[in-house]
Specification:
Length: 141
């Protein structure tokens, strides 16, 4: 997905729509979106890292309005299909699902280890207490 003749805010809107289906994080979306903008716009936006995406899109739109026509034409002429973007979004979705699955496995592992330790300690205390009672001389209850 390229900027082409659309405004940066329009490109961001389209990427958000695609990213919503792929469960893309905002940081990944930000990086992809900025990478699709002209160099002059990227330079300004990279120093504005504390801004949210909507504010960055407004800033990018203003910059694009003031960029020389020749630079805009050069950016517009390099168009390619959206297939690479769709593939990247698909891969990101798969990675996000894998990370979520791994997190669940780690949490389940931690829970099972915690439960195992709790049972083991309780059992060993009970056994040691039971032995000490049975070994006391003169205690026949």
């Amino acid at each position: 997905m390229e900027l082409g003749t659309q405004k940066p805010s329009q490109l961001l809107r389209r990427m958000k729509e695609l990213g919503r289906n792929a469960q893309t994080s905002e940081q990944n979306l930000r990086n992809l979106w900025i990478s699709r903008l002209p160099t002059a716009v990227r330079i300004v936006l990279t120093v504005s890292h504390d801004q949210n995406l909507e504010n960055l899109a407004r800033i990018a739109d203003k910059i694009m309005e003031n960029i020389a026509v020749g630079e805009v034409a050069a950016v517009s002429s390099s168009t390619s299909g959206s297939e690479p973007m769709i593939e990247i979004m698909s891969q990101m979705r798969k990675l996000n699902l894998e990370v979520a699955s791994l997190r669940e496995e780690v949490q389940e592992h931690r829970r099972s280890v915690f439960r195992g330790r709790g049972r083991g300690r309780g059992f060993s205390r009970h056994r040691s207490t039971g032995r000490s009672r049975s070994r006391k001389p003169g205690d026949e209850n």
